[in-house]
Amino acid sequence: QLQLVESGGGLVQPGGSLRLSCAVSGFTSDYYALSWFRQAPGKEREGLSCISSTDGSTKYVDSVKGRFTISRDNAKNTVYLQMNSLKPEDTAVYYCAAVPGFYNVYDLPPFIPTKYDYWGQGTQVTVSS
Fold first, then answer.
1. How many whole angstroms separate alpha carbon 6 and alpha carbon 123?
2. How far, in Å, are 12, 57, 65, 67, 69 from residue 17 at the CA level?
3. What sign has the CA pseudo-torsion 24, 17, 86, 90?
4. pLDDT tens-digit profile of 62-71?
5. What are the residue ranges in the chain where pLDDT is below 50?
């Protein structure tokens, strides 16, 4: 049973940075795609970035391109989301989600929550002065 555990959330001032971590465990295969989503109060869950464990391919939504960077450390079975230049509108609960399989740049899964089989519990990010 694959488990995802997020950490690294907190309170940060506008313009600041945070790095979120998603620790992956209990997976019998090394091959999956992992995405970061967020959900603000009263809003739908929004996909932000995705990475393939197979070849490290990545994609981002336009709203975070140039500010957020997704990366992985396969030795630690951890995926990171480095968030820079944070804005108050980035305030949300951030989730990581995974779907097993081989993925490359041409077929990374879409940011549709039902496409993902496993979810973490979420970590709160609050951007406020």
1. 6
2. 7, 23, 15, 9, 11
3. positive
4. 999 999 999 9
5. none
Give the β-pairing of 46-52 and 58-60. antiparallel
Per-residue pLDDT of 2-24, as tens digits, reads 899 999 999 999 999 999 999 99
Nearest to 36 by CA among 122, 104, 117, 114: 122
How big is the chain by its Cα radius of gyration, in Å?
A: 14
CA distance 3 to 5: 7
Structural tokens at position 7:
């950490």
Structure tokens at 102: 């081989």
Q: What angle do CA 69, 75, 78 make, to 5 degrees?
A: 40
Q: Measured between alpha carbons, how far is 119 from 37 in angstroms, rounded to an integer?
A: 10
Residue found under tokens 């464990």 = 53
Task: Check residue 13 and give its pLDDT.
Answer: 98
